[in-house]
Design brief:
Number of strands of chain B: 17
Number of helices of chain B: 10
Strand order of the largest sheet of chain B: 6-10-5-1-3-4-11
Shape of chain B: elongated
Strand content of chain B: 25-35%
Helix content of chain B: 25-40%
Largest sheet of chain A: 9 strands, mixed
Number of helices of chain A: 8
Strand content of chain A: 25-35%
Number of strands of chain A: 13
Oligomer: heterodimer
Largest interface: A-B, 85 and 99 residues
Chain lengths: ~290, ~325
């Protein structure tokens, strides 16, 4: 029996909620002054300093990783075998997540090493992912988060699909394995929710899926798979010269600007929750609500 | 410099696309005005209406397969090569991102998505767009042409433009092109639901719960308070990801963009991705225990206290006030 081979591509991002207002302002100032490490030539901004910030799984990628595990479990009940692999383009911060995925039953967990500098150049990230898929030749279905990260452009799934010559659906919310070469997909389009059966190979960009959190492996899971190792590749192993690709980038970040979202921020006082609610109602809400 | 606006009339959001594109051309584009609109349609009965919605006077019609972005990209690739167009402007939303990205890749141009505004020069296109999950605006410079730009969904809020006198320059049928139905890997298509967050987008009175609610029970109590005060109810991404509320209640960048007259946020930190969804609110009242969270500065009025307790008190005050003002109105007070 053939197995469906699913590869999930994920990224690890800084937790932006951990940055202070001053950090964003410093990012703007660094761009103006030209401080920081430029990439791809002069006049290219380096981005905000986030090296000290805790790292988290991108939320859409996290959905994709858990979704693939559930697809394998459901397919097994229907007699369809599914193999799972995971790949991330990034630095050493990716490694703990790769080991977690191995503990959860992913058979392959690979990091393609990349230093910072790819954050605002989705074309290079997409080339690395597409080349990895081509070189390994072990993927029928590629799943990845549909956007997020510093750039948040939503372009990577489409670019990978274009490079591979595969069809692509994004904003995917549900996937069910029908056979070793067919899946049933629900995805959001501008008109609403569209369901369709897709013949593989295919790229799926996961959006607001109901499945959102990646399960946590037990200690037993980790011990059972402790002999499995993550794989490390360099972009050059895939035939990609990252500095040269960055130099050829046709869309570059030149400046960052803090957004001023301030409003009055009037603090409503009171001794009790009831008193505060009444004060808010009397001072601001009453007239508005009566007009609604 | 020759620029072209692309309107995807094969989907049900054409009027919204046209309105947003029109506003973008008026207020978001610095540079030579767009020459014409390329309108893709599937059903001939729609063609006249779509022409009337086009944001430029000159219009070209192209008949193509319905719901097939790949077919549109195929046609645009040919147009880009044959007519020397150097700038393509697409609507926002999922479709615009796909079309701009794939077209730029096919024709060796440069793409940028979610544009807040662009400035078109002879050799460079400058673009502003949100980055870092809406924490900042990034300024980008595009070099290689043709440039493919999709606009930010915030342009959807724009009012309709005054009517233009349209001229249809051509009407071609591309349904027999490369995207034959039998080549598609997609089968058994079924459009099952309208956009799920539609009611939130229309809301006038909105309550949004964040992770500060602390638990599923806390979120449910806030939702009940919202119901009592006759408000619509939305949640932040952390709440939806914790499965404390359905994803279709999501407010923010990946959910609904709302513009209520009054928005009450409870236990919401004010992360920019969420704030994007409520920034058009006329008045924002925030209830949170933590005075250090960003929402304290970006709300109009703030109560520093337990969010669930305060919103329940507020619901009771509003419900009782409504009874006093409209004694016969029992409909909103459960």
């Amino acid at each position: 029996m053939n197995a469906m081979r699913i590869l999930v591509c994920f990224k690890v991002t800084p937790d932006y909620e951990a940055l202070r207002e001053a950090d964003w302002a410093a990012g703007e100032a660094d761009c103006v002054s030209g401080a920081g490490v430029a990439v791809g030539g002069t006049g290219v901004a380096s981005g905000v300093e986030t090296r000290y910030v805790p790292r988290i799984l991108d939320c859409f990628d996290e959905s994709a990783l858990e979704m693939a595990l559930r697809m394998r479990e459901a397919a097994a009940r229907d007699g369809v075998a599914v193999g799972l692999g995971a790949v991330a383009v990034g630095g050493r911060e990716v490694e703990p997540h790769l080991r977690t995925l191995l503990a959860l039953g992913y058979e392959r967990a690979t990091r393609v090493h990349a230093e910072a500098g790819l954050d605002f150049v989705p074309t290079v990230t997409a080339s690395i992912v597409a080349r990895y898929v081509q070189e390994t030749n072990k993927t029928d279905l590629l799943m990845l988060g549909c956007c997020s990260g510093p750039d948040d452009s939503g372009m990577v799934p489409f670019l990978v699909a274009e490079e591979l010559g595969w069809p692509c659906l994004t904003q995917v919310t549900e996937v069910t394995v029908l056979s070793d070469d067919r899946v049933r997909v629900a995805h959001m389009i501008d008109d609403g929710l569209l369901r369709m059966t897709v013949r593989l190979p295919c790229v799926l960009g996961v959006g607001n899926a109901v499945v959102a959190r990646l399960r946590v492996p037990t200690l037993t899971d980790r011990l059972a798979r402790r002999d499995q190792h993550t794989e490390l590749l360099q972009a050059t192993d895939l035939g990609i010269d990252v500095p040269a690709e960055l130099g050829r980038a046709t869309c570059v970040l030149t400046r960052l600007q803090v957004i001023d979202r301030s409003r009055a921020g009037v603090i409503i006082g009171g001794e009790t929750p009831r008193a505060k609610a009444q004060a808010l109602f009397d001072s601001h809400l009453k007239s508005m609500i009566e007009k609604l | 410099m020759r620029s072209l606006v692309v309107l995807d009339g094969t989907v049900g959001t054409a009027a919204q696309q046209a309105r947003a594109l029109g506003a973008f051309l008026r207020e978001g584009l610095i540079g030579p005005p767009a020459a014409e609109t390329l309108v893709f349609y599937h059903d001939e009965r729609d063609a006249g209406r779509l022409v009337g919605q086009a944001p430029t006077c000159q219009v070209r019609l192209v008949k193509t397969a319905a719901g097939r972005p790949d077919a549109i990209v195929d046609v645009l690739s040919t147009v880009a090569r044959d007519d020397g167009n150097q700038l393509f402007i697409f609507a926002g939303g999922y479709s615009g991102t796909e079309l701009a990205t794939r077209l730029a890749h096919r024709i060796g141009g440069a793409a940028v998505t979610d544009a807040l505004g662009i400035e078109v020069g002879p050799e460079r296109l400058l673009c502003r767009r949100h980055v870092y999950s809406n924490h900042m605006v990034g300024h980008f410079e595009l070099s290689a042409r043709p440039w493919c730009v999709s606009i930010n969904a915030s342009w959807d809020d724009a009012p309709s433009a005054v009517g233009l006198e349209h001229i249809v320059l051509s009407d071609t049928d591309e349904t027999g092109g490369t995207a034959e139905a039998d080549e598609t890997p997609f089968e058994d298509l079924e459009l099952v639901e309208p956009p799920p967050t539609g009611d939130l987008a229309q809301s006038r009175l909105l309550v949004v719960a964040g992770a500060g609610a602390g638990s599923r029970e806390g979120v449910e109590r806030i939702a009940e308070a919202a119901r009592r005060m006759g408000a619509d109810f939305g949640v932040s991404r952390p709440v939806a990801m914790s499965a404390w509320a359905p994803m279709d209640r999501l407010v923010g960048v990946s959910g609904a963009r709302t513009a209520p007259e009054l928005c009450i946020v409870v236990g919401v930190s004010g992360a920019p991705a969420l704030y994007w969804g409520i920034e058009k609110a006329g008045f924002i009242a925030a209830i949170d225990l933590d005075e250090r969270v960003p929402i304290v500065k970006s709300a109009d009025a703030v109560i520093l206290d337990d969010g669930v307790g305060v919103i329940e008190e507020l619901a009771e005050i509003i419900a009782s006030n409504r009874k006093n003002v409209c004694p016969d109105d029992q409909s909103r007070d459960g």
